[in-house]
Design goal:
about 300 residues, mainly alpha, Farnesyl Diphosphate Synthase, two-stranded antiparallel sheet, 15 helices, about 0% strand, globular
Length: about 300
Amino acid sequence: MMKVVTDNLHYVKNEVDKVLSTSPLIIRKYTQHLLKTEGKYLRAYAVLVSALRDDMSIDYDAVKFAAAIEILHLASLVHDDVMDDADMRRGNVTLHKLYGRKTAIICGDYLLAIAMSMANSIEDKEKYLDYNMPDYMEAIALGELKQHINNGNVKLKMKDYLEIIEGKTAKLFEASLYAGAVTSNEEDIEAYKLAGHHIGMIFQLLDDVSDFEDTQEKAKKPVQSDYEQGVITLPLIHAFEENPELQKRAETETLSRKELQEAVTKAKGVEATYEVAEKYYAQAVEAIQSLQVREEKRQLLMEILNKAMRR
């Protein structure tokens, strides 16, 4: 089963590379730069694993969906980098730092259009009428907007934080497992969607934790920078709840990285965030275990979950 997935993942990468390297000349210089920031294709991999049939085959429609989702993800990263004024992405200079904010935004918009076009290029679309990629694009955009609206909101509550990451991250993982499941004619679509949602929540929770755990060399992006960009994450929420005086100061002044690190450590904000992730992990395990699939496929789904949980 693993070979089937990796072989098809190669096809996904070819589809994405073809889109980025052969785009119209007016934009090709910018999309080709994005080829340097190639990620791990976790979402595409999730599509393909979910798409595995009992006969160990994968419909090529799943490859198309996986490529569309990766391009959609790339578009969201381009826009994120503009909003966060990020210098680096996956060890490379960000698009907007090289070519300007307006150019990067337009490129991100172009990629969104390409993602939709690729999803619509599937010939037998009638089989997937229930799968609506625009709904997921809407959820991602609203999640990003909610985060932007709450930039600098040091009084942000955990409930609101979870709603933000559900939109900006979890929905795309949900879309990934959902897309794979519909191409393999799976019956329990809701279990796949639940598993994808929980995996996405874990992924973002632990990505936010890395801001206080990883070095820049390890993360391949600036660390301890979320707060400086106005992004309030769960470790900080716990720190502020444990120290109202610090929260009050944060309303009127910018706290130093050292002070933030000490506050998060004292409040055990990292540990508290892991506890929340563990709850999503347990729910994801339950969803995966409920699936009527071959054990090899179940193990591959568990591997995706464990990667998100860093196990």
